[in-house]
Amino acid sequence: MLEFRNLEVSYGTKKALSITDRIEIKAGEKLGLIGSNGAGKTTLIRAVLKLVPYRGEVRRKIPVEEIAVHMQQNEYSSLVPVKDVMEAILGCHIKEHEVAQELIRFFEFEECLRKRYKALSGGQKQRLTMILVMCQESPLTIFDEVTSGLDFETRTRLMQLLQKWYYKRNTTLLVVSHYYEELESLVDKLLLLEQGQVVDYGTKEELFQKYCGKRALIFERNPLAQQIAQGYKNLKTAEDRIAVRCDEEEEERRLAEALRQANIDYVRTHRDIELMVTNAKANWEGERK
Ligand SMILES: Nc1ncnc2c1ncn2[C@@H]1O[C@H](COP(=O)(O)OP(=O)(O)OP(=O)(O)O)[C@@H](O)[C@H]1O
Fold first, then answer.
1. pLDDT of residue 28 exceeding 80
2. Which terminus of the chain is less hemmed in, N or C, by CB atoms within 10 Å?
């Protein structure tokens, strides 16, 4: 569906993106784009959409005009009801558009149709844009920080809906998000960018195993926990926590038993994206020194 080779984007003299590897995103794959602020995520999307000049190659299976995209900022006319805005964009009456009707029901958006855009809450505004993007039913659909600025509950609800909608569909998705927990259920592959370069690319499982082992146990940091964790492979994580890499079952069993005896609660994970990203980044920075 999408392929990048030797892709480079510069803004003036600043190189914002430089992807030297060949990256291929197959039809139906759901890809999460992860990276710190300024890592080049939006720039990559702009290159896919031909919104910035670039060097190298971007191969698209469908024409740019057919790609559906939800960018960070969207504004619509505040003067007319949302229903009219939608109909102007869709180019037909909502009742003639089956997918639009289904999406309006799916997102429980019926009540909002009579309101003006400026009277919608942040979450409702995002729903509107999502409905309009999803109505296109494009085989390649891009969401750039759909949930930024929304509270935790609204974010979680919107992402659950997205996941439910796309679960059985063969749509290729590109999803940019800073909220890792959102990506856990929605995407199968991850592209990690940092300072315009590729840190790694692969399935969530592959990348977790590569940087965090088969499983990891995570628990609160305190002096006793620190003592127990000594002698195990400690992973990089937030300062108030300890994360231990467990590649062998016996090793995990021993550690879990010691934690239980010390009355320390732990979480066992084989897919925590945040832990994986933290360790992938540390590894990448280490290699560059
Ligand atoms: N129009 C522009 N002119 C000059 N520099 C730009 C422009 N757009 C982006 N940049 C720079 O390019 C780099 C990559 O920006 P980009 O917006 O792609 O990052 P991002 O990963 O999407 O960040 P964020 O998570 O903050 O949205 C940054 O250093 C940014 O300052």
1. yes
2. C
